[in-house]
Amino acid sequence: MTVLSAINPQSFGNTLLLFQLDKYNAQKVQREQKNVSDTISRQVNSVNQKADKYRDLKEDIRKAINFIDRLVSRGDNIKNLLDKMATITFKANYGIPLSFPGYSNSFDSYLRRFNIEAEDMGINPNLLGSASQVKYSYAYKINGATKTLSPTFVGSDYTIKESGDYIWRRDRDLGQLRRFVDSTGAYTGTYVGLSSSNIQLDSFTAADDTVTFTTAFGTAAATQYSGTITRSGVKVLDGWLYAGLSTADGRTRAEDDLHDAEDILLGVISAFKSAQTAASFYDDQIDIKLAGFNDLIEEKTAAGLVEMKAAEVDSFRLNNINTALVSSAMSVRGLYLEAISLGKNTDLTKALVNLVA
C-alpha cells in the first residue's frame, strides 16, 4: 500500500477505534492517578497536621533545654567562684598582718562577682536571682501539660536588724552598708563602705548571728552598733564580718559558711540538671514521634506511587488487549472472505462478513 492507494474503510475504522480506545484508557489512567494523588495529599496533610503539633512542641522544649543549660552553666560559674573564695580563706591561715587586707579584698571581689552572676538581669526569667516571684514553665505534651522550674537565690545577701526600729541593708551596686528606718523604709543617710578597712568587727556570736561593729573606727566620729543578722541566698557574708580573715575565728566561720554555701549550690545545680535530663528525654521522645510520622508519610507516598504505577500498567495491558482483539477480528474477517471467495463473492456476502467480523 502507498499513499496513492485507495483507503480501506474497514482498516481506517479499526485504526480509529484503537485510537479512541487508547484515548479513553489514557483519560481513565489520569482520573485514577489523580484520585490516588488526592488521597495521598489528604492523608499526608492529615499526618503533617498532627506532626506539626509535635514540631511546635519540640521548638518549645529546645528553648527550655537551652534555658536550663544556661542555668546549670551559671551555677557552675558560681561554684568556681566559691572555690576561689575557699582557696583565699585557706591561704589566709598562713598569712601575715600585711597580707590580710589583700585576702579580704579578694574575698569580697569574688563575692561581688557571684552576686552579679546570680542577679544577671539579662536573663529572663532569672531563676538564680533574689526575685522570688518569677518562674519558668514549658509545655512538654501536646495537650498543654507543663513543667515548671521555681527560683532559688544563689547569690548572697544579709541585713542587720538593730534592737530599735533601724535596719542595715547592703547596697551591692554602691558597695555600701546603709541604715534605714525599718518600719517606713526611709533611708537615714548613714552608710559605710563594705570592707574591713571601713568597718571594724567588735564581736560576732555564731550561735544566733548577733554582731557588734564600729563605723569610722579610729576617728572622733567612731560609732558602735549592734544587731542580728538575717541571711538569704547561699548565706556567705562580706569579708569584714569574718574580721577581714585576720583571725582564726573569722577564717573558721568563713570556711564553714563557704562549705554550707557549696552544699546549697550543689543542691540547686543538681535540681536543674535533673530538669535538664527530663527536658532532653521529652525532646528525644518527640524525635521518635516525628520519625514515626515521617515513616508513615513515606509509606503512604510509596503505596500511592504503586497504585499510580499499577494504573499505568493496567492501561498498557488494556491497550494491548484492545489491539489484539481488533487484530483478531480483522484476521477472522479475512478468513471469512477467503472462505467465501470459493463461492459467490457479492456485496451482500461482504456485508455479512462485515457484520460477523
What overall form do the CA principal axes indicate? rod-shaped
Strand percentage: 15-25%
**Main β-sheet: number of strands, strand sense, barrel status?**
7 strands, antiparallel
In the sheet with the most strands, the strands line up as 6-5-4-3-9-8-7
Q: Unreliable stretches, pLDDT < 50, 5 or more residues?
A: none
Q: How much helicity do the residues have? A: 55-70%
How many helical elements?
4
Distance N terminus to C terminus?
Answer: 23 Å
| Backbone structural class | alpha+beta
- Topology, number of strands: 9
The SSE string, one letter per element, is: HHEEEEEEEEEHH
Q: Which whole number gives the mean pLDDT?
A: 82
- Radius of gyration over all CA atoms, rounded: 46 Å
Secondary structure elements and pairings:
Layout: H1 9-92, H2 100-118, E1 136-139, E2 146-149, E3 156-161, E4 166-171, E5 176-181, E6 187-193, E7 199-205, E8 210-215, E9 223-233, H3 248-340, H4 347-356
Antiparallel strand pairs: 1-2, 3-4, 3-9, 4-5, 5-6, 7-8, 8-9
Helix pairs in contact: 1-2, 1-3, 3-4
Write up what this structure looks like.
The chain is α+β, with helices and mostly antiparallel strands and 357 residues long. Among the domains are: 9-44 and 292-356; 156-233. The protein has helices at 9-92, 100-118, 248-340, 347-356, and strands spanning 136-139, 146-149, 156-161, 166-171, 176-181, 187-193, 199-205, 210-215, 223-233.
